[in-house]
């Protein structure tokens, strides 16, 4: 019996490489669709198990900055583990090996006896061994991907290479999901800081003014002043209370969870401009140029919030009669301009406690963009925001 011809060997090698690329492409596409860590890991496990013809798998991750591990995802656990969560807690042989040394040598990956299944008599579903694939990010140990099959065999170098590449893809997805979660947390922190400044700048100062007027009225009454004389500061306090109540309502409306209300950004800006123009006694026009395709949600939300803040500042301080908002979508960036014909100001003399402008700057910085302010006394204000889309 003769061995395989060179042509047959080449064909088999090409078929194997094609299969590997198909598997990696499918996994990469699935991982690229997700930024939520739980969904990312579940999606990766399901595909790894299906495409590699395995039965089960699970992923251990270390809590960031610690050596404490937790079960982050599982696929088709055998009954002995699925029905006894206690067995999937704490450390095990492969985790201890990973923490104390590398798992990258074939001796540590091929036919590893699962210490969690070792003591089980029933409920193993025929499993006894698994492969352990280390997960890394920039040299940091993220965790371990375990995959198993009842008919486990010694892994070939090709199998190992494929599994390690899968591990690299999962590691990148884990790190990306964690970075996204941290960016959301930073955004929430920045939003809380902006709210704190706005409350201080509006509601807190308004309440202080109300208290001052009421203290004046109380002092006048104590000195025996005429009721009419004491009534004036009370009326002023009442007017301030009404104004602050309206401001509080505006702030609550601005902070609704879905500011765009499922509208395209251009339509949402138009609705916002019309609503603010009616209250601020100025005319507003919105222009949308370039591609109408949706922007990333965080950019659309950020630009909408910037428009809210800019229109609020115009209504409070500008004394403008006309306002224009222009959204320009270019291939590599989006440019958003808000311009008014109000009284303007000297840009070099903007006070440090101008919280509205500071909040807009922070939003733009979080989006990786830039903000430019042009104005002079009597010449209105032009605010330009540029956000890169790369």
Structure description:
By secondary structure, the chain is of the alpha+beta class. The chain is built from ten helices and ten strands. It has two domains: 6-181, Beta-Lactamase (2-Layer Sandwich), CATH 3.30.450.40; 260-390, Histidine kinase-like ATPase, C-terminal domain (Heat Shock Protein 90, 2-Layer Sandwich), CATH 3.30.565.10. 52% of the residues lie in helices and 18% in strands. The strands form two sheets. Strands 2-1-5-4-3 form a five-stranded antiparallel beta sheet, with helices on both faces. It has a five-stranded mixed beta sheet with strand order 6-7-8-10-9, covered by helices on one side. Strand 9 and strand 10 form a beta hairpin. The radius of gyration is 31 Å and the shape is elongated. The chain starts with 5 loop residues before the first helix and ends with a strand. Mean pLDDT is 77; it is low at 105-109.
Estimated share of beta-strand residues: 15-25%
Order of helical and strand elements: HHEEHHHEEEHHHEHEEHEE
Count of distinct strands:
10
Helix content: 40-55%
**pLDDT below 50 for ≥5 consecutive residues: which ranges?**
105-109
Integer-rounded radius of gyration: 31 Å
Amino- and carboxy-terminal Cα gap: 59 Å
What spatial order of strands do you see in the largest sheet?
2-1-5-4-3
Based on Cα principal axes, name the global outline: elongated
Output the number of helix runs. Answer: 10
Write the CATH architecture name of the largest domain.
Answer: 2-Layer Sandwich
Give me the secondary-structure category: alpha+beta
Number of separate structural domains: 2
Note the main sheet.
5 strands, antiparallel
Mean pLDDT across residues: 77
* CATH homologous superfamily designation of the largest domain: GAF domain
In the CATH scheme, the class of the largest domain would be: Alpha Beta
Briefly note the CATH topology name of the largest domain.
Answer: Beta-Lactamase
């Amino acid at each position: 019996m003769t061995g395989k011809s060179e042509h047959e060997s080449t064909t088999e090698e090409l078929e194997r490489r094609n299969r590997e690329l198909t598997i990696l492409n499918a996994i990469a596409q699935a991982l690229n669709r997700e930024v939520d860590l739980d969904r990312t890991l579940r999606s990766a496990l399901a595909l790894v198990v299906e495409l590699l013809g395995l039965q089960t798998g699970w992923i251990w991750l270390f809590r960031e900055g610690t050596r404490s591990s937790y079960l982050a995802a599982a696929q088709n656990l055998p009954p002995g583990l699925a029905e006894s969560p206690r067995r999937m807690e704490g450390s095990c042989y492969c985790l201890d090996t990973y923490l104390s040394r590398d798992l990258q040598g074939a001796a540590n990956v091929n036919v590893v006896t699962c210490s969690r299944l070792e003591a089980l008599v029933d409920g193993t579903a025929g499993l006894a061994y698994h492969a352990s694939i280390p997960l890394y990010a920039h040299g940091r140990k993220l965790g371990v991907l375990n995959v198993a099959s009842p008919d486990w065999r010694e892994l070939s170098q090709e199998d190992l290479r494929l599994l390690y590449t899968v591990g690299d893809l999962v590691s990148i997805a884990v790190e990306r999901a964690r970075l996204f979660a941290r960016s959301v947390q930073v955004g929430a922190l920045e939003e809380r800081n902006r709210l704190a400044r706005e409350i201080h700048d509006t509601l807190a100062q308004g309440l202080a003014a109300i208290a001052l007027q009421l203290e004046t009225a109380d002092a006048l009454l104590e000195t025996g002043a005429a009721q009419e004389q004491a009534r004036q500061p009370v009326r002023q306090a009442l007017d301030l209370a009404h104004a602050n109540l309206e401001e509080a309502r505006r702030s609550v409306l601005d902070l609704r969870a879905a500011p765009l209300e499922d509208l395209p950004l251009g339509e949402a800006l138009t609705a916002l401009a019309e609503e603010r123009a009616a209250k601020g006694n100025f005319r507003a026009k919105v222009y949308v140029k370039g591609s109408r395709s949706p922007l990333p949600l965080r950019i659309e939300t950020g630009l909408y919030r910037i428009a809210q803040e800019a229109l609020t500042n115009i209504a409070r301080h500008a004394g403008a009669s006309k306002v224009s908002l222009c959204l320009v979508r270019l291939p590599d960036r989006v440019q958003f301009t808000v311009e008014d014909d109000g009284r303007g100001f000297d840009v070099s003399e903007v006070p440090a406690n101008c919280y509205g402008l500071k909040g807009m700057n922070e939003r733009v910085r979080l989006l990786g963009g830039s903000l430019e302010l042009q104005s002079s006394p009597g010449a209105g204000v032009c605010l330009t925001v540029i956000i890169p889309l790369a």
